[in-house]
Amino acid sequence: MANTKEYQRNRANSNIGRIVIDRDLCIGAASCLAVSAATFELDDENKAVVAGADAADDGELVAAAESCPTKAILLFDKVGKQIYPK
Amino acid sequence: MQKYKYLIIGGGVAGTTAAETIRANDQNSSLAIITDESYPLYSRVMLSKPSFLLEEAPAAGVWLKNPEWYKENGIEYLSGKSVVALDVAAKTVTFGNETVNYEKLLLAVGTRSRRWNVKGSDKQEIYYLRTLDEAQKLATAMKIKKCAVVIGSSCIAFEAIENLRSARIAVCEVMLEKYFWEPMLDEEGGRIVERALLGNGVKIYRQSEVLEVTGGENVEGILTKSGEKIPCDLILCGIGVVYPVGWIKTAGLKINRGIAVNEYLETSAPGVWAAGDVAEFKDIVLNELYLAGNWMSAREQGRIAGLNMTGRREPFQLVSFYTSHAFGVNVAFAGDIRLLPSRTSLGRGSADSGSHARLILQKGKIMGTAMVKLIESKLDVSQELNELADPDFDLKLLLPN
Q: Same CATH fold, B114-237 and B3-111+243-309?
């Protein structure tokens, strides 16, 4: 059973509707924070959580997801189709 | 002679991120990556995780770029080629029998596993864990081996030991240090880690130096200088890294331990930058020269180097962070955790509480911290033991609402 946390995204003019963090995959490499500190932070288990789902534009959010060395950040569009990882 | 406007040596996360950044800012100029590995970008940090070593997840999870990505972005990917010479006056790089010309060069050559050099260390069944090839060999061996000796107390050793134990391989941990992860952790933090190792059946030999690897063609055991004989059919060495900078030093670039660069990641040679694990950079947060050696720093340095190679002049500025996790213990390092003579350390928490932090201070300022925490399961099943034993019981019912 996947151990995930999901976050709805309601930013205007965004194609991304949902951000999912797979906590089993997340190792706290923190590269997502380096790319988008407004979106991500680490919790007390050093796992990434979303603090601001609407804070960054789509480009920054995709770059943050792509920076993850374990592909623990999943992005979905407004109709639920997975955008990243492809 | 082939000429590239941008030439990157090293296909890891620093080199690849630099290429990506260059292409985002300069769509038309020639750009090539030379790498001595045979693969597109993969996740080096995944190699010591159970998803890879124990094949708990599809092998495809390790790839971060596919071969098409390089073609689609106009990046010539020269894989399986080892650079042997650099001429900064002629602006050329030589690999094999080929010499190419560059206008701007990035050295992102990474590090290599330090090779173990004791009598018998050339025998079969001695493994390292740095590259995909090394990890694949280890993963294959782990399917049949029964008894491992792990040399060194590092991130690699810590995570690999958990995988070895999950594969039902007996493990003896042999280290020169007084406690695990010395000197990056203090003794309190090291005790939390060691308690987890011991609790999971690992035998620890502290302040122990290997005199000889015994056996015929294959390893059969080790003999320590204090006379202990430890049988094994697999040895994993996690004894640090070396910087592959011989040909870079010959070219006249300034080298400390790694390649010396300023905060703009410029080397001592005009038109040459360095990034990633090999870059010993001027850290403007710490005001020190520093080798970071982690994914977060390498990726960000690649981005900054790529920007600066396309004409910007951005300093690299990052408080880096990385973690390691095994046996329910999470170890996190932030900033510069070296206890240099000019620094003091302060402990916070205790091994008995399962949570300990070590703060590194210099002139009253925090330079870095190492945090060790036992992550306890939040799932209390003490009232459902009978249900747990029933194979028809739906385990989902145990999850909190």
A: yes
